[in-house]
Amino acid sequence: MIFDEEINQVVRNLKPSGIRKFFDIAVKKKNVISLGVGEPDFITPWHIREEAINAIEKGRTFYTGNKGLLELRQGICSYYKRRFNVEYDPEDNCIVTVGGSEAIDIALRTIIKQGDEVILPTPAYVAYAAIIEMAGAKVVELELKEEEGFKVTPEALKAVLTPKSKAIILNYPGNPTGGIMTREDYAKIVPLIKESKIFVLTDEIYAELTYEGKHCSIAEFDEIKDRTVVINGFSKSYSMTGYRVGYILAHKELIDMILKIHQYVIMCATTPCQYAAIEAINNGDKDVEEMFLSFKQRRNYIVKELNRIGLKTHMPQGAFYVFPSIRCTGLSSEDFCNKLLEEENLAVVPGDAFGKAGEGFVRISYAYSLDQIKKAIEKLEDFLKKYGK
Ligand SMILES: Cc1ncc(COP(=O)(O)O)c(C=O)c1O
C-alpha cells in the first residue's frame, strides 16, 4: 500500500459492506440465483418514466434550487399528511436529496460530532454504522431480538442510553428484519427519547410496504417531533432505485443546517428525476398498491416454504426481506452463505453483515419473481438435506 499513512484512517478501517463483498464473489460464478439485493424487480411505471423523458425533451436539465423543486416538496408534504397524518411545510421542513442514502449521511453529519454516541438497533441496514463512524462518532449497538419482533423496547433503550447519547436510528419497516413498530410500540419509547433529549433519525423508506395495519411515523408524536428527522425516498415504493431521489423532513432549524452540507456537496438532486418524482408522488398510489400486493403474495409464499423446509422464519410485517434463523444447521451465517453459494449456486446475505445481532440468521430478499423464489427454495431444500439437523 503506497498511501497507507496518508489516507484517513477512519476510512481505511471501514469494513467493506458485507453484502457487496459477498456479491463480488456471486457475480463471478455462472448460473447463480441471487436473492440478495434489496431492489424492487418492477420496471418503473411508464407515466413516471415519461415525466423524466419529458423533462429532458423540454430542456429542464438545469440546477434546481438547493432544496429541490417546490412542486416536489409540496407533493412530498401533502403525501406525508395524506398517508401518515404528519404535517410539514414545503418551504421550511423539506429537502430533496440524492436518495435516502444522501439524506442519512447529511442528517447524521449535521447532528453528530466527534465523541458522540449514536444508538443503532441491530441488525441494521449497512450504511448507518459506516456514516456514524465517518462522522467521528461511536456506534452503540442495541441488539434487537427475534422473539420481540425486532422492536426497540424501553428496557433495551434504557440499557444503552448514556450522557453521551446523541441520537437513535430507527428503521421501521426494517431492513434486514422486516420488523415494524406500531403506534403503541412507539408510545412506550417516546417518553424516554423526550427525557434524554436525543435526536431520532427515522428511516421510513419501506413505509409503503407495511403488510399488517398502517405505517406509523414516530414524527406523529408532537412531543418529540422537533427532535425527529424523517428520511424517505422513491427507490423502494415506486421502484425508482436508479433515479436517486429521496428526502428529509425535519424542523426548520435542522433543515437550515442540513441544507448547508447538501448545498456544498450536492447542489441539488438530478432535475429530470425530480420531475419524475413529482409524477410518482402525486399520481403513483395505484402503482404502489399493485407492487405492494405482489410483495405480500411473495412474502406469504416464501415464509410458508422456508418454515416447511425447516428454516424457522418469523413472518415479517414489512419491507421485502425475510430473516430466517439458520441455527438448525450449526453453521455460522458466513459459512452457511459461502457453502450455499458454492454448492447450490444460490446467493443470500449473511445476517452478521448487519451487525453481530444478525449472527445465526441470513437475509433473503423477495424482491424477485415467484419463479426465482421457487427455484431458490428447491436449492435451499437440497442444501438442508445435507446440513439441516
Ligand atoms: C433501510 C434503507 N435505507 C435507505 C436505503 C437507501 O435507499 P436509496 O438511497 O436508494 O433511497 C436503503 C437501500 O437499500 C435501505 O434499505
How would you describe what is shown here?
The chain is an alpha/beta fold. The chain folds into two domains: 9-43 and 286-387, Aspartate Aminotransferase, domain 1 (Alpha-Beta Complex); 46-283, 3-Layer(aba) Sandwich (Aspartate Aminotransferase, domain 2). It is 44% helix and 13% strand. The protein contains 14 helices and twelve strands. The strands form three sheets. It has a seven-stranded mixed beta sheet, sandwiched between helices. Helix 9 (222-225) links the parallel strand 6 (199-203) and strand 7. Helix 5 crosses helix 10 (252-265) and helix 12 packs parallel to helix 14. The chain is globular and about 60 Å long. The N and C termini lie far apart (45 Å). Pyridoxal-5'-phosphate (PLP) binds at residues 38, 99-101, 125, 171, 175, 203, 205, 233, 235, 241, 246.
